[in-house]
Amino acid sequence: MTEKKKFRAVRGVRDIVPPDSSLWNWFEQTARGVLESYNFREIRLPIFEETELFARSIGGETDIVSKEMFTFLNQFTPEERYEDLQERIPEELSRDPGEGPIQALLEENSPQILSEVARAAARVRRPAESLTLRPEATASVVRAYIEHGMQTQPGLVKLYYTGPMFRRERPQKGRYRQFYQIGAEVLGASDHPAIDAELIEMLTVLIGRCKVNDWTLLVNSIGDANCRPAYIEKLREELHKVKDQLGPDSQRRVETNPLRVFDSKLPEEQPIIEKLPRISDNLCEDCQKHFADLLKQLDLRRIPYKHESRLVRGLDYYMRTTFEITSPHLGAQNALAGGGRYDGLSEMLGGPPVKGIGFALGEDRFIEVMQTAGGVNAKPTLDAFIVWMGEPAYPAALSLARRLRGEGLRVELPAEEARLKKALSLAERLGTRFAVIIGENEVSTGQFTVKRLDDGKQCKLPEADVAGLIRAAAPRN
Ligand code: AMP
Question: CA-to-CA distance for 442 and 439, rounded, in angstroms?
Answer without folding.
Answer: 5
